[in-house]
Amino acid sequence: MDMKTKILLLCLILFTGSQSVPAQSSVTYDGAPYNIMFTWKKNSKAIKPHWNGLGIALANFDGINNTGADLAVSTSYSLILNPMDYKIPLSRHWLFVSGMGLDFSRYHFKGNTGLTVVDGIARFVPATDGETYKSSKLMTYYITIPLLLEYQTRFSNRLFYISGGMVGYIKYYSKSQIDVRVTGGVEARNLGRDLNILPVNGRFMLQTGVSDISFYAYYSPFSLFEKDKGPDIKPVGIGIMLDF
Fold first, then answer.
1. Closest CA relative to residue 9, chosen from 28, 25, 22, 24
2. What are the E-state strand segments in the chain?
């Protein structure tokens, strides 16, 4: 076999090896087999961020006990819908994650207490004499933007991941409402919409899961309300998420 033929054969071996998927391939030339002892395999399981999904969390407030209100934790929740994500792979296991989502939070309060603005300050105030509340709730709706660092690895062909960072919250709706028992039924009353709630806020978030199911927790280091214009309460919660 002359030198030119050997070079052509080597090029064919390298090309075939880079395109093959099996662990070993072979090429036959002039009746003699040549085994390829290596392969370059493309990764068919591309790294995927875990922000897109649907989740629900039990919602609470740090500091609510200092306000005179009593939160009904079992019926207070945050529903999240994250339709858009963006990733920057940093290595085989690490990636930066951003995107956009929606957060719909409802906080229910026990007893005859409602949140309203008095003299420019948001306060929890009791019902007037003779009135009884069937329910009292605060609703806050946000657009969310995450800035997260995620780690991924596989165990027994199952993907494990953990991510954490800060999520920005941009408020687009809020409302305080009470349902008052009256003769013949229930009357809904709006106690305020703006309520001095911060228009932009942030929360720390930690998420961990396997495959398409994860658990997450969040905590805000900032008050829900503008400084000195409402109670110093900070959103906190824990929930479960199904990834898209």
1. 28
2. 25-29, 32-36, 53-62, 77-89, 94-109, 113-118, 121-126, 133-155, 158-182, 185-192, 200-210, 213-219, 234-243
**Side chain identity at 81, as an amino acid letter?**
L
Just give the CATH number of 53-243. 2.40.160
Whole-angstrom Cα distance, residue 114 to residue 108? 10
Structure tokens at 5: 């033929």
Nearest to 120 by CA among 192, 200, 177: 192
Q: Which helix (H) or strand (E) holds 19?
A: helix 3-19
For the stretch 71-119, pLDDT in tens is: 999 999 999 999 999 999 999 899 999 999 999 999 999 989 999 999 9
Token pair of 33, please? Answer: 């087999």
The per-residue pLDDT of the chain, averaged, comes to 85
pLDDT at residue number 184: 82
Q: What is the pTM of this model?
A: 0.78
> Residue ranges of the domains in the chain?
3-36, 53-243
Neighbours of 238 (CB within 10 A): 15
